[in-house]
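Person: I have long wanted to understand how a fold can be written as tokens. Underneath my words sits a plain record pairing an amino acid chain with its backbone structure tokens. Those tokens are not coordinates but codes from a learned vocabulary of shapes. I should like you to check that the lines agree and flag anything odd. The protein I mean follows directly.
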Amino acid sequence: MATGAIRNKGAAKRSGGWKEAVAQALRRAGAALVLLLLATGLALWWAARWTPPREIYPTQGVTIDAGNGAVRWGSIKAAGADFAYVMATQGTRGIDPMYARNIAGAREVGVRTGAIHRYNLCQLATDQAANFIRHIARRPDALPAVVWLDFDDRCPDRPTRALLLSELATFLAQIEAHMGKRSLIAPGPAFEAEYRVTSGIARTTWLRRDFFEADYGAHPWAMWQANNYIRLSGADGTVGWNVLRPEGDTR
């Protein structure tokens, strides 16, 4: 009987030890999860506020589209935006529904503006240029227009590089004749890797990479979208934050 009692005590001890080990493991996992959540929250907080140093890049601005809602441009200017590029047209028929309101609001508070066209690989350049010209008025004080170049899952076409460069040259010639000034091209990293647009089209480039200077173009960028996660009190969601390369900087 004494032997049975000793055995029962040993089993209970082993059972208690197993439960305690599990409890300790759960406590450690919980603590690790809390630390991970805190680190993630801190990273998101930092990302939503980070901009390149103004002493290196004196001229900075935003990218705005309809997803940013009814933008309060006074707040955008107060946040340090010297200029704004506003999503305008897309393909042959698309027009950002907030474009006209955003352009008027920005100009009212003294923020210079430029228009962005999202190029569509599935549609003819001449038809896309007609859409841009129909909706975007020529203004001497406007910033150069931008051609935004990205792949779109809704467009399966992948033309040859020669055909793309030819079509893009046609598009640029037509909108530049309308605007009276040369445009910028803004290829995303994947688009540039496949088509090498910056070495095939002689235009000023706008490159995009969050937090680290973009270097995927054939020549140095003139404008860099440095953070696409900025949150400002004057806009819904996130906005793109851009910097201009200072005069004389050839890095």
The radius of gyration is 27 Å.
